[in-house]
Structure formats: structure tokens, C-alpha cells
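Risk register update: the risk of archive-format incompatibility is retired. Evidence:
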Amino acid sequence: MTSTPSDTEGAFSRWTTRRWLRVGVAATLAVLAVLGSLGGWAMWRTSVITAELVDRRTPALIESVRVEEALVNQETGVRGYGLTGHTDFLQPYAQGVHDQEAALRRLRPLVAGDPRARADLAEVEKRAAVWRQRIADPVSATPAADARKITLERAAEGKSSFDALRQAMDRQQTRLKAERVASADELRQAVTLRNWVFAVIALVIVLVAALVFEGLRRGITRPLSRLGTAAREVAQGRFDRSLTGTGPADLRLLASDVESMRRRLVKELDFSEASRRLLDEQARDLQRSNTELEQFAYVASHDLQEPLRKVSSFTQLLQRRYGGQLDDKADQYIGFAVDGANRMQTLINDLLAFSRVGRVHNDHQSVDLEAVLGSVLDDLSVTVAETGAEITHDALPTVVGDRTQMGMLWQNLLSNAVKFRSPDRPPHIHVGAASADGMWEFAVSDNGIGIAPEFQEKVFVLFQRLHTKDAYPGTGIGLAMCKKVVEFHGGTIRIDPDYKLGTRIVFTLPAAGDRPAAPEREPQP
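Archived output:
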């Protein structure tokens, strides 16, 4: 069963980056190994031919020429001695014999591996031995008178013998020269082949490097670059940008994972956008409802003032005119009516004050809390004197806010501290102040009856009372108004649960940016 091109492409498409790199590195190493082998072979062949030419062919030719020179010197010396009888000619002959033997000793190993060169050398040595036996040795070994006679008698034989020796040496040198020329030509061819092999190796290395670079660019760099560009576009807000992967299987899987993440983000963003629009709509409805409720509370409390004043006035008039003239039940009912009208009047006034926080009194400026507290203490001087209360405070800072609301805040906190005093000890109230992280933290501490832990959050809710009106008069709006004032100014308010000597109410207000912060200090009990 043969595989189709689509099957092959499908198999390659499942290859990961690691597999592509492994195959690419293995193929590159194989190509480099083959090229290295070719280069090594070319270098080896060039070195072998060079060694053959330098170490054998050329030295053999040189030694052959030296043998010829030594034989020529011998022939010249013998002939001169034989013709003149002068023994001086024997010295070149003896030197020639010595040089011939030395040259032959060097030449024999050089031609040992070449049968034809050995045969030529043997022919030269044979001819030289014949010439020396018949001519050179007899002439050089006899006295001068006899040497001349032998020379003349064997002149023709000596000439023919030495000519044969010359011909043998010429044949030897011709063959050695031809072999040297052939080795030189072979060396030139080997060098040319070596250069071409290395040129091809260099070209193949460049092609392999280009293929590796292009493969990395197409298979890894370009897909990663495209994926990175698409991911950055998505990160910049183009959530409709689809991410498609190319290249190896793992890069396509990575692109698929990123695309899945993008789709999930799109779904989450759509859901968040829908939720935001719903929240915005609900916030607008809530703001409109709150505005309407505040307006309703203000209008209702304001419009109730006049009829309530009439009810209160006529009830009090009825009590003064007919008090004591009716029976006890009538006097009790009239007292209930007067008390209810007065409490209704107080409740309406408190509601008016609560609804005005942040709506009527909204003049933010630098407020000296020291002066505001002094004014509040003046207003509470009668109550403080009657109860024997002792009120102390730290040095108070200047904050940014509405002076009227700051006065309402101190008025409610201090009057509550005096109102909810302990029956067995005179009230002691301390106002502390400390700065931290750009905020001022204030603490109003008293030694009163305290607030149980389960009610410490409830007391800040509108109309929440912990005691009956007979025990402690009031409408239950004071701390709710304090919470509204503090939060309107960007602060928080709470009851310190760790304070056990009474009640400590802690609240924060932003520090005035143009005034230096006072030294930090712990609120005093």
C-alpha cells in the first residue's frame, strides 16, 4: 500500500518543534559528516601524492644525477691519468668512486618500490661494474708507464663501455623524470580537486545554514511573531482579532490555546459589559430613588411642620385651659397628646437635619476643628454643668469639609456621650486625634454604659434605639447622621470593640493638603 502526498503532509503536520529540530540537526550533522569525509579524503590524497613527489621521486632523480656525475668524474680522472701519467688525476677518480657508492646507497631505498626503477638501477650498476672492471680499475692500479699503454690499447673498448653506461643512466633519468612529471601533474590535479572539494563544502555549509535559517524563520520565528503580534493586538483591546496558528504542531496548539483564552475573555467581557450596564442602570435608578426619597423626606417633614405646630399649640392650650377641670383620664389623654406632638416635632426636625446633610450644607473649605469643638462645648455648657461631665481633648487639626456638618458631628457625639452616662460615676469624655497615611483619626471615648458587641453596627442605622424613650429620650437618628456626615467627607466611622471602659467611637477624616500634619499620638482614654 503506497502513501499519498496528503498522507505525507498529514504526518509532517503532526511534527512538533522539537522533532523538527532533531531531524534538522541530524540531517545537518550527516551532511557535515559526509563533507568532512570528502575533505579529509582530499587532504589525505594530496598529502600522499606530495609525500611521493617530495620524499621519493625528486630525491631519486637527484641521486641518479649524482651517480652520473660521480661516474663522469671517475672516467675523467682515469682517462687523464692514463694519458698523462700524472697521479693528480687519481684523486678525482677516488672521490668519484666514493660519491658513487654514497649516491647508490641513497638511491636504492628510493626505487625499492618501483620494479622498473630497480631494473634501470641494476642496469646502471652492471654497466658501471663492467667499465670499472675492464677500464678504470686496471688503469688506476698500474704505474704511470703501464697505465698509458693500457689506456691506448683499450681506448675503443673504454669508449664503447662508458657510452653504454651513459645510455643506461640516460634511460634511468628519463624514466625518473617522467615519473616525477607524472607525480607533479597528479599533485596539481589533487590540489585542484581538494580546492573544489573545499569550495563545494563551503557552498554546502552556506546552503545548509541558509536552509536552517529559512526553516527556523518559516517554522518558528514567523509563526511566533504572528502569534505575538496578534496577542498584542488582543491585549490592546482588539478582542475581535482571531488568532490562527501556523508552523509545527506545538505552536499551532499554543495558538489554539491562546485563541480559546481570547474567546473566553470575549465572553467574560461581554458578560461584564452587560453586568456593568445593568449596574449603571440600577445605580441611576437608585440615585434617582434616593434623590426622590430625600426630596420626599424634606418636603414631607417641611410640610408637616405647620399642621403639627397647630396640633401642638391647640393641645397645649387645651391643657392649660381645661387642666384640672376634667377627670383624671381626660388630663392623662391631654398629656399623651402634648407629649406625642412634642416628640413628633423633634423627630421631624431631626429628619430635616438628616436630609440636609450633603444637600443643603455642602460648602467644603478649611475647617478648624478646635474652634468648632469650642463652639459645640459652649452649646452644651448647661448640660455639662448639670451632669458634672468632664470633657478633654487633644490638639485638633484643620480639615477640609463643611463647618455646619462638622458642628452637627461633634454635637451628636458629645451629647450622646453625656446622655448615655453611667449612673454611678460622673461622665468623663476625651476627644483624641492622630494622623496616619494622609488621614486624621479621631476617637471620642467615654466612661458611660457602653454598647454591647452585637449592637455596635446596628446603632448607625436610622431610627435604631437600644433603650426606651422613658429611659433615654431621643429619636435614634444621631449616630446615623454622624455616619452620613463622616462618609460624605470621605471617612469611616466605627465603634472600637476593644474598648471596655465605656464607648469609644472612632472616625477618620482626610487631612488638609496645605497644612502640615500634627505629631501622631495615641487617643487617650
